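TASK: fixed-backbone design
INPUT:
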């Protein structure tokens, strides 16, 4: 009995010890777990970003040195820009005109009616991957077709471009031909393809940029499901024809084919809108989709040129969430950035509704004449100013600035997409420095860091750049993009204190 009692006591003591042991392990484990969480937090949010920045500085030290003497050092990329700073600095671009650090495709349009673009293309050739002179129109002629525009082509300019850099030359072709006839008749479709491809061979272009979607929408072609399918098949057929044709400069590569697409007209995609299914259908036949994310506003409804939320909404419609997109497909999407602005008349006897597009030269003349206070509209991510003309009519002027362009470049980088510029003859010289500079802290080693880290890093970078950035709403694609009221944004001019502007 004594032995059994001892055994029972021994067993009870053992259980008690085990229980006490478990409690002690639990007590020891809790602070251990806390320390582990703290360690993970420190490594994830402090050590990795710090190491990334050090690696960046070591690996890309040359680039940092190069930008110190340009717009970065001058501290003019900011929201509180002064008109005199723009007048003083707009023509002082970096001496380094040959280096390009924007890793994604950059397409630049050049128009004959803004001849400055031809010079800018030569000077900054290496900052672009593709150059598209606006030269050609495919038109109906009797029962046939004619490709007009060769008289615009400048072979000497092309030769000089190719001697200075490797940008591909892809003239724009606008399909003006009557779409119903073109799409329904097989012989006309084949004729159109032959005319365009033959012209590229004879003129030794690297391919073309085709614009037709907006024309087809205007004709009502895209409202008809059958004609819409024919339209998509024609684009695919033309793209396949270019991909089966060798490039004149490199016979091991095919010619390139890019296609212009517009943004949606409403929150819900309509049948005439270019959507994600169209993107998937054409992705193997098209090398780039030039997305016209500008012209959001017009004289009848004045406002920003391209609000950031609208841009994000458009990209989300086409590509889905930025966290789960096909990177190869995204790279083919070229975010449209305007180098022009708008001067809207917003008061007067007629109640406003006048005005229109302005170039950099027009913008500088307005700054010189009116010496206005330039305001930052945080909602759209654009600058604007107000003035009164000789008839006392009030105007609102929206024109891109270094800050507004930089926001869009870095937004595009986070989406993993390219850029298309309309058009380089309308911009200011120092805009081109951004294609050297916009690499800042986002190069290589940082692109795989989670978005939360990027957000904190951008805040640090913003301080380093003396920028007063409001990036949280424009770069956080992990949240739902709230889309402004389509087709009109809440007018930015309503948020400005007019009494603070020049009369």
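OUTPUT:
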């Amino acid at each position: 009995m004594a032995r059994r009692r001892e055994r029972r006591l021994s067993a009870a003591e053992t259980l008690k010890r085990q229980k006490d042991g478990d409690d002690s392990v639990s007590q020891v484990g809790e602070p251990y777990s806390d320390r582990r969480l703290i360690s993970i937090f420190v490594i994830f949010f402090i050590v990795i970003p710090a190491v990334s920045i050090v690696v960046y500085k070591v690996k890309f030290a040359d680039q940092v040195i190069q930008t110190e003497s340009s717009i970065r050092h001058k501290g003019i990329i900011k929201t509180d820009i002064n008109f005199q700073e723009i007048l003083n600095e707009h023509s002082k671009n970096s001496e380094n005109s040959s280096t390009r650090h924007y890793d994604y495709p950059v397409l630049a349009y050049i128009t004959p009616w803004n001849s400055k673009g031809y010079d800018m293309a030569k000077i900054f050739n290496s900052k672009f991957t593709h150059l598209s002179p606006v030269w050609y129109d495919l038109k109906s002629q009797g029962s046939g077709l004619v490709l007009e525009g060769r008289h615009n082509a400048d072979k000497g300019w092309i030769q000089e471009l190719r001697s200075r850099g490797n940008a591909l030359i892809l003239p724009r072709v606008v399909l003006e031909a009557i779409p119903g006839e073109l799409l329904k008749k097989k012989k006309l479709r084949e004729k159109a393809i032959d005319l365009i491809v033959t012209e590229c061979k004879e003129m030794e272009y690297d391919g073309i940029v085709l614009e037709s979607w907006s024309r087809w929408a205007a004709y009502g072609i895209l409202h008809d499901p059958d004609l819409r399918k024919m339209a998509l098949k024609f684009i695919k057929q033309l793209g396949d024809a270019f991909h089966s044709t060798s490039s004149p400069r490199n016979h091991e590569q095919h010619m390139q084919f890019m296609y212009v697409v517009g943004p949606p007209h409403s929150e819900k995609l309509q049948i005439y809108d270019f959507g994600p299914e169209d993107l998937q259908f054409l992705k193997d036949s098209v090398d780039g989709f030039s997305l016209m994310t500008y012209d959001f506003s017009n004289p009848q409804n004045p406002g920003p040129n391209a609000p950031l939320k609208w841009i994000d909404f458009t990209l989300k419609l086409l590509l889905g969430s930025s966290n789960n997109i096909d990177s190869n497909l995204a790279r083919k999407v070229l975010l449209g950035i305007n180098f022009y602005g708008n001067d809207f008349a917003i008061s007067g006897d007629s109640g406003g509704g006048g005005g229109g597009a302005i170039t950099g030269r027009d913008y500088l003349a307005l700054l010189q004449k009116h010496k206005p206070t330039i305001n930052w509209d945080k909602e759209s991510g654009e600058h604007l100013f107000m003035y009164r003309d000789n008839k006392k009519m009030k105007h609102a002027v929206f024109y891109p600035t270094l800050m507004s362009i930089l926001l869009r470049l870095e937004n595009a980088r986070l989406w993993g997409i390219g850029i298309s510029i309309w058009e380089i003859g309308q911009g200011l010289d120092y805009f081109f420095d951004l294609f050297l500079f916009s690499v800042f802290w986002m190069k290589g080693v940082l692109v795989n860091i989670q978005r939360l880290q990027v957000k904190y890093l951008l805040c640090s970078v913003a301080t380093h750049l003396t920028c007063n950035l409001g990036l949280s709403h424009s770069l956080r694609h992990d949240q739902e993009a709230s889309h402004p009221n389509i087709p009109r944004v809440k007018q930015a001019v309503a948020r400005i204190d007019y009494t603070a502007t020049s009369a």
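COMMENT: The mean pLDDT is 79.
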